[in-house]
């Protein structure tokens, strides 16, 4: 008998999944994203320079030929829909229909997955696709003993390795629990095969004849095990951003893994391998760890969805708490959102830390990345309040299982409101501003002004569009490690600057004070974000006299 309530719920989830991601398709490319657009467009002559195996570049090139290189977000968006279907298939076969609805619901409102679904790169939708497909193939082959699973596994292996080297973590995570469980019964043949595999890997890594392969050179450029010289403060900030993107659902997932590691060993090992690889083994502190760890939205959605459904099943359907608590928390959540927020410049970062430890959380955190998105704001007080509430509710549920009818509606509404609010804010910026929208208007002004010949743009915003207009000169950053090059660029250039305040610039910086002396010829505002075009022709940049 068809359960129409579940059918309607599934349809609503699919519509929400597509709608949340489609709303972000119009965002402009940012930094690494526009580099992908230039590389896959052979008119630039940069093909083959992406430091990864060729599958991603090939797919983006074909998509660009068909739909235009300005519409590359459509490819990860399409793949994200396939990911939803694959994940639903995986969960339905393993845990049933009700768990499937809960898991795809979690994925739909996952901020990390919303970003991954439209990000022009391979670490989002494409790598997630091969991960889920591999899990399905492994289940069919090993658990269900189906011959088709073996061939599907072969396809997954080839596709995953042609996508990115780190795909090997998927295989290691699947094999690790089997090896540990049966380590005493492993045959000599398997041990010998493992030794040969390791030797081949070492020879491959050390051989000079493969150094000409672009992605091998790229991989060798990272420090291995350099814990003494690693920037742990930067590592902490990057991983904090990952937690913000994963949201309160990661707390529920952690609870599930700790309580029942056997049920979630696939998700546990996959998460451990990813975190060890990017946080411990290799030094990615000066890279975008937050981009690489977007893949954790899959194990988080799986475990959190399963745990939440288990809790919901223990709550009486007509429980009064199912109505009172969501409404109450919704009012509190909205009230905290409405509290006026302060804007803090990203540099120096200690301003954020000082405000946090002082207990004054009424400020906005800019979420941006070198590989996209262009950036959006999230409120520190709402983030902290949501995380703290789920931690308390989870611990309370752990000690008093019979009181889940109180805590479950609370946890559910927190996760839903968190995901929907910040997912919509990322896509359209209705609360704190849409950087992409005002950047487009500023870029249109630059395009239509014939007097503007060369532009230096802050944080490389609009780099692709300026390049298409033949008006891109250089970019500037205010990160401490780039201040030297920024000083030289300002000193040698008297022209036009594009400054989209994402992340915001401190008015106390030397560069901001200089730009204030220039002519403001165009300005757009959206929420807390400004986009300004400065005309600095004939205005020398003050340099220190020797």
Report on this structure.
With 546 residues, the chain is of the alpha/beta class. The protein is 61% helix and 7% strand. It has 24 helices and eight strands. It has a five-stranded mixed beta sheet with strand order 5-4-6-8-7, sandwiched between helices. A three-stranded mixed beta sheet has the order 1-2-3. A hairpin with an 8-residue loop joins strand 2 and strand 3. Helix 1 packs parallel to helix 5. The chain is globular and about 75 Å long. The termini are far apart. About 1% of the residues have low confidence.
Q: Compute the average pLDDT.
A: 86
Count of discrete alpha- or pi-helical segments spanning 4 or more residues: 24
The number of distinct β-strands equals 8
- Poorly predicted parts: 208-212
Biggest β-sheet: count, sense, barrel? 5 strands, mixed
Helix proportion range: 55-70%
Tell me the fraction of residues in β-strands, as a range.
5-15%
SS class: alpha/beta
Radius of gyration: 25 Å
State the end-to-end distance: 85 Å
Label this structure with key terms.
8 strands, 546 residues, alpha/beta, 24 helices, 5-stranded mixed sheet, 3-stranded mixed sheet
């Amino acid at each position: 008998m068809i359960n129409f309530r579940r059918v309607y719920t599934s349809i609503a989830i699919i519509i929400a999944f597509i709608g949340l991601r489609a709303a972000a398709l119009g965002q402009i490319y940012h930094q690494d994203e526009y580099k992908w657009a230039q590389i896959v467009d052979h008119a630039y002559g940069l093909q083959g320079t992406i430091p990864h195996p060729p599958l991603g570049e090939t797919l983006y090139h074909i998509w660009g030929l068909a739909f235009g290189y300005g519409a590359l977000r459509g490819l990860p968006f399409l793949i994200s829909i396939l990911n939803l279907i694959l994940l639903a298939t995986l969960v339905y076969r393993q845990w049933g229909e009700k768990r499937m609805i809960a898991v795809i619901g979690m994925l739909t409102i996952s901020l990390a997955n919303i970003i991954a679904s439209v990000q022009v790169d391979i670490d989002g939708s494409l790598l997630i696709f091969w991960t889920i497909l591999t899990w399905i193939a492994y289940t069919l082959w090993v658990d269900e003993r189906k011959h088709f699973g073996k061939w599907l596994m072969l396809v997954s292996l080839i596709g995953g390795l042609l996508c990115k080297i780190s795909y090997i973590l998927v295989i290691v995570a699947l094999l690790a629990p089997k090896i540990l469980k049966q380590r005493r019964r492993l045959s000599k043949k398997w041990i010998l095969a493992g030794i040969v595999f390791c030797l081949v890997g070492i020879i491959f890594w050390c051989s000079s004849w493969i150094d000409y392969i672009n992605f091998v050179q790229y991989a060798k450029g990272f420090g291995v095990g350099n814990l003494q010289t690693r920037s742990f403060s930067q590592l902490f900030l990057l991983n904090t951003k990952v937690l913000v993107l994963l949201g309160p659902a990661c707390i529920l997932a952690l609870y599930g893994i700790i309580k029942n590691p056997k049920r979630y060993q696939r998700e546990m090992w996959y998460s451990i391998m990813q975190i060890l690889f990017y946080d411990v083994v290799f030094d990615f502190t000066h890279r975008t760890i937050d981009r690489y760890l977007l893949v954790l939205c899959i194990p988080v959605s799986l475990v959190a969805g399963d745990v939440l459904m288990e809790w919901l099943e223990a709550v009486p359907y007509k429980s009064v708490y199912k109505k009172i608590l969501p409404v109450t928390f919704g009012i509190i959540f909205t009230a905290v959102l409405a509290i006026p927020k302060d804007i803090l410049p990203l540099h120096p970062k200690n301003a954020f830390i000082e405000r946090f430890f002082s207990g004054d959380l009424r400020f906005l955190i800019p979420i941006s990345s070198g590989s996209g998105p262009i950036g959006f704001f999230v409120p520190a007080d709402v983030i902290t309040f949501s995380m703290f509430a789920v931690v308390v509710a989870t611990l309370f549920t752990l000690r008093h299982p019979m009181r889940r009818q109180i805590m479950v509606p609370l946890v559910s509404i927190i996760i839903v409101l968190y995901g929907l609010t910040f997912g919509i804010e990322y896509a359209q910026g209705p609360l704190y501003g849409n950087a992409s929208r005002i950047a487009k208007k500023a870029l249109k002004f630059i395009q239509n002004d014939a007097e503007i010949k060369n532009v230096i743009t802050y944080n490389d915003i609009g780099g692709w569009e300026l390049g298409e207009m033949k008006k891109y000169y250089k970019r500037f950053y205010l990160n401490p490690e780039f201040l030297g090059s920024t000083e030289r660029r300002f000193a040698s250039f008297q022209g036009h600057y594009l400054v989209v305040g994402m992340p915001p610039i401190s008015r106390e910086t030397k560069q901001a004070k200089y730009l204030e002396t220039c002519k403001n010829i165009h300005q757009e505002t959206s929420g807390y974000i400004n986009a300004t075009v400065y005309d600095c022709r004939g205005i020398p940049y003050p340099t220190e006299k020797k």
